[in-house]
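Weekend entry, working from home. Most of the wet-lab plans are on hold until the incubator is repaired, so I used the time to fold the two sequences that have been sitting in the queue since the last round of cloning. Logging both here for the record. First:
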Amino acid sequence: MSKPVRWLATESERWVRERLISAEQAAQIRALYPAPPAAAPWGLIVFCGLGAVIVGLGIILLLAYNWDDIPKFGKLGVIFGAIALAHSMLYGAGIWLVAQIYNIDEHYPNGFLFWGLGALALAWVLRSVPQGLLATVTLACWGLSECWGFDRPAGWALLLVAGGLGSLAWMRRSTVLLVVVLAAVYALLLGSAGAWGGGSAAFAAALALGVGLVAAVRLRPAGVEYDGVVATIRLFGWLGFLSCSYLLSFDRLAGALLDWGEAAVGAREQLIAYRWAPFGLAVALWGRLLMRAQRGESPRVPWEEWLCPIGLLYCNLLGVTGTASGTLFVSLVFNLICLGIAAMWMVRGCRDGLLRETVLGSVLLAVVVFARYFDLFESLATRGLAFLLLGGLLVAEGFYYRKCRQTAEPEGGVR
């Protein structure tokens, strides 16, 4: 029982004893504030998982020390017996040990592939979040080792992680699994696009993915919240878009990131998969959102979110036409986008008494100003003036936020 619910139960009993309210009224009051569902025992999960990993490593080292003295059939018996007892951790170890027994000289990323496929199958059979986490990590290792070690895009790894494990995270409403899946999707998409077309291709893919995730949050079915899951998708979407916009706010980076001539020539499938598929999906999601908004089928989208598809379309237009040479103008546009988002978050946060938007807008504004300290201003006097203006603005924002909260409290209470 949570502390507030326990306090209410104790106090309501005291009110009944003092005859301030009846027992029926006390029961009705307690019914208005039911106990929240029990939280997952993360301490137990984390320490048990860590302990299982350490035990598995200890077993592997112990066997490795006596490995030469064990006959082949004995080795195989130990391996497959351990698989039956410890599932995926020792299943993965078994793959590498079997290869060592018979001196199999194989393409080493395949070991991560078979390990990940086994963990993925167990994750769905058991509906297990820990197995899903292991499958995500091993499949990501497979894909990234192909990208970084052999310059091969990892499209299949990306599909397995996004489809097979993203759907499991949604079904289980697991925030932890979704965080790992989205991180792996970003890494695999950037690694695959980079292996095909270099830094500009990886940048374009990251920008499109971030913009698409921001739209996906708004397109969720009506009444679907799942606070942790939705917040995670929103976080990764805004991190992707703002990180890309921040990089483009530097004129020294903008030209290189929007130079599409760096991409490999003649790789049509990779061009579709890593250049146009993420872009097309993001545009389709925002187009669907625009149609729903025009028909009044969805809540109003805040103005700053429309800067996401605008920025994406602008970047792709520059890339297609090859007109990104005027990088000073590009950096100016994305400085204004970052400042516009920060200003709108700050204004709405203060006006509506929303602490999260107020803080995020203030942090974004401070990051942009500090970046310009190293990138734009030459004079110490100009830099000092910029910091004075920033500090004064944040102080004024604090007073305005407090005033709005005090005005709203008598009517609606504290948010």
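Second, folded right after the first finished:
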Amino acid sequence: MNRMFHWRKFSLLAGLALTATLILGGCGTDSYEEPKSGVISNAALPDHATNALIEPETLLEWMEAGLVNSTDSFQTGNVVILDYGSSNTYLPVPGAGRVATAELAATRLEGIAETGTMVPTGAMMDSVIQRLGIDDNTTIVFTSDTPFYATRAYYIFRYWGFPKEKLKVLNGGNKIWNDVINDPALMTNVKVNPTPATSNYSVRDNGILRDDLRMSIGEMITEVVPALEQGTMSHLDALGPAHAEGTGSTTDLIDPTKYVVFEGRIKGSAPLNQGDLYAASTPSRFKPAADIRVLFEKAGWQMGQPTTVACRAGVSCTTLFFALDAILNSPVYSYDGSWGQWGLYSNSVDTNGSKIPSTLTEKLALWATDQYTISGTVARDADGYVVKENLQLGNLPVYNVGRTLPVSGVSTTLTKIHIAPLRIDTTALYGTEGPADPRANQIENADRKYMTAPPAGGAPGANTGSAGGGC
């Protein structure tokens, strides 16, 4: 959203009531929020704050009602099943539209350098939603062979303004669908059009860009780091304790044969492995809400406190994002670049493979993220749970040069040639005034511009005057 509080993004989500007022009351009417005739609804699962997580049985009922890829979405509503990033490990859900990871991930400039696996552009979104027949009466069900790809797709659609009420994640994804439902006896009454009719819908028609759900690297440095020091925010590392302690390894987001400069954890953060949120007996299905809440609380989270989540590439951490956003309904942001970006922004001695000039001073010197990073043993409580720690605990980051890690499957002592380049854009580096400069938030600036620009050769999308937040 537009920066109502001048770059204090987490102020927008400090309270759920305030958030609702800003989005629903202060930003005009969102046409996507208004079902025409068909209304598709489902009950929330036990102890869930929203109905965003659905069981396979619910999707089966929608199939039996003929709602999947409906040819008359205006009257009946329409269900589109978006299968994101699957690798054909399991049979696909009938009628699902397959979307490759590359269709919703982009290498984009943000901060001072290009980074891979970032949120897709508006044009990429429009290509997918039009191919799958998504329109303003569509309920979208996300599934995958890999659970965190389904939650990543959920997050991306949230960012691009699709309302939470129209977005569903299939609990257990393709694995549980095949284990529980994919039986001829259960599929007797299914009425599914095999492919959807295309649409001309655009993200512009949503009338809002939810960039208040996303953190850029500049915002991580200027908003999250101070908030962690003040104790007004939580940050959770979905890669888990090993990474936080500095014993993990992070490959580059553009060239996965290379490594980032350093490992560790942001000062004041806590690790919470995203896999811990799934049941041990069915590792693709979420644990009960009460158990998930305990995991967050043990990591220092409090209901209503703004929380950022990160991982290697901003993908697996969306498991945590979804749990907070949809199951517990608590304010949360995803750090899109995550450690694949953070771990490259180093100005340490050149022998570590650092790429940010060590000569930078004042505001520009704030770009070096190793100054906000520590490593070493994480704090645990008496029950063995990792807890949010005192900022003074921990050592310096662990630099990857000199470590022995796999390179093309061969155990190798890393040198500078094994460290990924930071693809610095000198105009972005020297043409801005450091991380707090709004010009260094290039992705969200470009996406807001897309929301307000008329489509090529056509009229503007609905609610163009309030696009990008309009507040």
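Plan for Monday: verify the second prediction. Residues 172 and 326 are 16 Å apart (CA to CA).
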